[in-house]
Design a protein that fits this description.
heterodimer, A: 109 residues, mainly beta, six-stranded mixed sheet, five-stranded antiparallel sheet, 11 strands, 0% helix, 57% strand, B: 114 residues, seven-stranded mixed sheet, four-stranded antiparallel sheet, 45% strand, globular
Chain lengths: 109, 114
């Protein structure tokens, strides 16, 4: 079956670094996304990986290992505004997005 | 730029009544999607449309219908609402020529069926 797994909730401290993991099992693979969703708002695009390796974009980086079916989102220099849910999603072979349930990140001062 | 507009933003509906959630985009995107989001579950695809004039069923299509008469509009209809359809509904779009396939989301419609 197709599945995307990520932790339900994580807590981190302002100014620190946090890594949110995502494992996936999809029929075929055509890329993996990370989205950010603040409470009561729509998801917004953070990153897209289709090749193995690390993609860096400011304080946020995303890593992909296709052989391991694994990705992570790395957030550096955490700010209170980073408190949100982080959604992992992957395209399957039919180009339909399969979504994880999201990881709620709580930032403490 | 408006992007994607959904209406209404919030609605309380009696069970058995019909309801249409509206979605309009001004980005000339070909593909459009309707998702529902429930606590503890990922976004689940209800229906999609790859281009005007075509629609397809997603993961949870029962009780919902869609139409795609033109590029901009993709309404979602609940013919006879049931309490299990209480959810937050997101409309999204994607340009087929995009290099990442990034989805752009509307602000969501919160529906409560009593």
């Amino acid at each position: 079956g197709q599945n995307i797994d990520q932790p339900t909730e994580m807590t981190a401290t302002e100014g620190a670094i946090v890594q949110i993991n995502c494992t996936y099992q999809t029929s075929g693979f055509n890329g993996l996304f990370w989205y950010q969703q603040h409470a009561g708002e729509a998801p917004t695009f953070l990153s897209y990986n289709v090749l193995d390796g690390l993609e860096e974009k400011g304080r946020f980086s995303s890593f992909l290992s296709r052989s391991k079916g694994y990705s992570y989102l790395l957030l550096k220099e955490l700010q209170m505004k980073d408190s949100a849910s982080y959604l992992c999603a992957g395209w399957d072979s039919n180009y339909q997005l399969i979504w994880g349930a999201g990881t709620k990140l709580i930032i403490k001062p | 730029t408006a992007g994607i507009t959904q209406a209404p933003t919030s609605q309380i509906l009696a069970a058995g009544r019909s309801m249409t959630l509206r979605c309009t985009q001004d980005m000339r995107h070909n593909a459009m999607y309707w998702y529902r989001q429930d606590l503890g579950l990922g976004l689940r695809l209800i229906h999609y449309s790859n281009t005007a004039g075509t629609t397809g069923k997603g993961e949870v299509p029962d009780g919902y219908s869609v139409s795609r008469a033109n590029t901009d509009d993709f309404p979602l209809t609940l013919a006879s609402a049931v309490p299990s359809q209480t959810s937050v509904y997101f409309c999204a779009s994607k340009g087929l020529a995009g290099d990442t396939g990034e989805l752009f989301f509307g602000e969501g419609s919160r529906l409560t069926v009593l």
